[in-house]
Known about the structure:
It is a single chain. By secondary structure, the chain is an all-alpha fold. It has one domain (about 35-190). The chain has helices at about 1-20, 20-60, 60-70, 70-75, 80-95, 105-115, 125-135, 140-150, 160-190. The mean pLDDT is about 85.
Amino acid sequence: MNRVFFVIVGLSLAFLLFTSPETAIDSMVNGSQKGVNLCIILVAVYAVWLSLLELVSATKLDKKLAKLIKPISRKLFGKQDSYTESQIAINISSNMLGVGNASTPSGIRAMQGLDKKTGKITKAMAMLVIINTTAIQLIPSTIIGLRASYNSVNATNIVLPTLIATSVTTIIGILSVIIVEKIKTKLSKRK
């Protein structure tokens, strides 16, 4: 992937140098400046939400959250140990807050807890991947941060469309996993 990126950047820069050499350096500097500004804004957004997730963990709110979503979690993932259930709860809640990158460590730990060491993906593992990928977002904080960094007039007007879109995709994803699992079960019974 690094080679592909390097080739794309190299070809773009070469093309820009031949077509408009006076704007090549300007474009690189302006692009770099915008990239650094965006990173600073996103670091601030992530700092807020990561510290909130750390508080959730320190106050044992993750255990309470896991207990609260246990009926839904058990239907989707089956019965799991308490650590895995709390990691699933943290993963889902951080995705709901729109900080998908912050949910990665808890998602990895939850996936490790769901792994049965058979070398095959289980229904629970597939469900976690789908829910993590589609992620219902109550507060799309990363997108709001991006929109604010580009001086959006109303950076938060994305909340309702995002909630609708992510809810629909999550429902479709969950139903897809259930349907595939039923088909898989029927096929294995026929053999």
